[in-house]
């Protein structure tokens, strides 16, 4: 009879361990699923994921993406400044990137104030800023590093705007 009780005790311990393991794994899968769901709403999920790692809250995801866009835009400004003399498309792009930096800072302030409408307005302007930069290169049929960066910034800003629409 003692062997039977021992077996039941071991069986109960194994069952409890399996249940805990299943709960842990399902929690990780659910978290990964929520993160993937944020990016799955965007037009460019592969560009979204690096900024939204382990974030399931749309407000935080949007804030982090805004911060990343600010940093990348400032780097693009430095690059554009090198070549803006004598190249009208890069000069125009430099000006619109400067506008984008201002609009991103304003969007970041708006998200902190929980003013979603203002934030979306600024983010829409950012998408437009990057689009104007890219359009200038398309019209002049130029392909260069500034243009390539502007295309990526436009895609990331589009993702950012989409993430901002998920904020409740």
UniProtKB/TrEMBL annotation:
SMART domains per UniProt: PMEI
Alphabetical list of PANTHER family matching this protein: PECTINESTERASE INHIBITOR-LIKE, PECTINESTERASE_PECTINESTERASE INHIBITOR 26
Entry protein name: Pectinesterase inhibitor domain-containing protein
InterPro entries for this protein: Invertase/methylesterase_inhib, Pectinesterase_inhib_dom, PME_Inhibitor
Residue ranges occupied by any Pectinesterase inhibitor domain in the UniProt entry: 30-163
GO molecular function terms attached to this record: enzyme inhibitor activity
Signal peptide: 1-32
Domain of life: Eukaryota
Keywords assigned by UniProt, alphabetized: Signal
Lineage: Eukaryota, Viridiplantae, Streptophyta, Embryophyta, Tracheophyta
Family recorded in the similarity comment: Belongs to the PMEI family.
One matching Pfam family: PMEI
